[in-house]
Design goal:
It is a single chain. The protein is α/β, with parallel strands linked by helices and 555 residues long. It has two domains: 280 residues, no CATH class; 147 residues, Transcription Regulator spoIIAA, CATH 3.30.750. 62% of the residues lie in helices and 6% in strands. It is built from 26 helices and seven strands. It is elongated and about 105 Å long. It starts with a helix and ends with a helix.
Amino acid sequence: MKIKRLFRRDTIGSDAVSGVVLGVESVPDSLASGLLAGVNPIFGLYGAMWGTFTGAVFTSSPFMAVQTTGAMSIIVADVDEVANADDPAAALFTLSIMTGLVMLFLGLAKLGMLLNYVSQSVMIGFISAVGVNIVLGQLDGFTGYEAEGSNRISRAFDLLFHLGDIEPTTFTVGLTTIALILVLERTRLGALGMVVAVFAASAMVPLLGWEVERLQDLAEIPNSLPLPKLPDMGLVPSLIVPAAALAFIGLVQGAGVSASFPRPDGTPTDASRDFVGQGAANIAAGALQGMPVGGSMSASALAVSGGAKSRLAVMIAGVVMAIVILLFAGPVGYIAMPALSGLLITVGVRTIKPGQIATVLRTGRVQQLVLTLTFVLTMLIPLQFAVVIGVVSSVILYIVRQGTQISLQRLRIDDDDHVVDVEGLKTVPPKTVVILEPVGSLFFAAAAAFEAMLPTVTEDSANSVVIIRLRGRDDVGATLIDVLLRYAEALHNVGSRLILASVEPGVRQQLDATGVTDAIGENNIYKPGRWRTDTLLLAHADAHAWVCEHTDTDP
């Protein structure tokens, strides 16, 4: 990052406006995230402040705002090691640092491509459940009734049976906040309407003389920046799983930001560098009393819609949050808690995307199952474990897809030496040259699917040659090698022959090392030619001559 590029005359004005808008809006949003996580809300503001500035310095995506997010806050709320620690604050900061270290390791190891293996079904199921959890988790603060139950769902049902115990003033402030957000966002205020709505609803409380819980009743709002705090090393082993879950969710959300808001010059973003930037942001947040952060789609969208032209806008937002802490800690403390709950309920509802859910449900039973499983588990078990199960589900889904994304083409050489597709065969006929080419993956389950597609060798399949074209494959794997050995043996047993055409050097080494070359004969393995069809034409000519020689007929 070059400093001179940030302070350009033609962009600094737009960046400054965007940064101020994002910084001001992020104050109630990050406080609400702290509330959602069940920690001191000021830790949410500290995390967003340091995460936004540090992330802007190190990420590849110039418009990525690394802040507190609803999904990550929900995970923090479910981490018992934080809630039940002797020093919950120290445990939270340790969790932030560990999350950052996981992200940093993945980034430095250039593992950004791992996100390509996370299925859309898992993410939509998870994010949808997070949205529901956000709404359910705020019902106590929104209604003023302290529901009882072992989880958010049971507490929601308890509320339904005690609607008469809802505090009217608390409920009114929450409803007013939601109504104001919906109205003010349609005005010129845009996203700032959320900020105005929270403060306007909070102003109702002293004006009407109501007794409603305020932010300063829960925690002291200091008018100074936080001092560094060392992590609690004794908690490191118990925080590994939640830290990995937080890193995964933060990085996936960050990948969505990178894809949605590309660089102004059109060059691609570096996912691994984004990992590094988010890791640095979490380490800075944890070291300076902040909760875990990740790439925030809503904050990034606000920066871009506000006119951001470079990463300077996001850096300014971090500075604006620091100024709010230093100069306006008093007014921030008067924010009504039901107003923050109303803000979070709005965010939670908007997190659920019915259109995306419907799309996944229309794509097949496997995707339906994965989405449903992820959603149900996220609702019933702690989120850090639901994330792990979701990742495993993605891997399984990927393997299933690879196992089904395989087809077998039958080819024929016409009189003009053109290669054409023809209808497949169920069995290998006698005195025939059969040319087959697999299309798709041949690893693991796909190899077994490929074997099932091969024409069956029967007692009537004598004196034929089956050519399997392996063009463009550098590695075939042990499972496919076993398939080739079995098929070659079956053909040999009825007096037929297997030829492998267009075998690359890497595959040839595997065939030599595993005994396939000896089993089918070195003269039955053809290396690639200069032109795409050279080898196939040569193999076909040899096979044709062999059939003629052994049968005195023209195949």
